[in-house]
Amino acid sequence: MANPNPQIKYTQLFINNEWVNSASGKTFATVNPSNGQVIAAIQEGDKTDVDKAVAAATQAFQLGSEWRTLDASVRGGLLNKLAALVIRDLVHIASLESLDNGKAFNFACYDVKSAAQALAYFAGYSDKITGKTIPVDGDFQVYTRVEPVGVVGLIIPWNFPIMLATQVLAPALAAGNVVILKPAEQTPLTALYLASLVKEAGFPPGVVNVIPGYGPTAGAALTNHPNVDMISFTGSREVGKLIQEASGKSNLKRVTLELGGKSPLVISQHCDLDKAVELAQLACFFNHGQTCCAGTRIFVHESIHEAFVQKSVEAALKRKLGDPFAPDTIQGPQIDQEQFDRIFNLIESGKKEGATLKCGGKRFGNKGFFVEPTVFTNVKDNMRIAKEEIFGPVMPIFKYKTLEEAIERSNDTEYGLAAGIVSKDIEEALQFSNSVRAGYVWINNYYGGSGPGAPFGGYKQSGIGRSGGEEGLYEYVEVKTVAIKIPQKNA
Question: Active site residue: 109, 271, 292, 293, which one?
Answer without folding.
Answer: 292
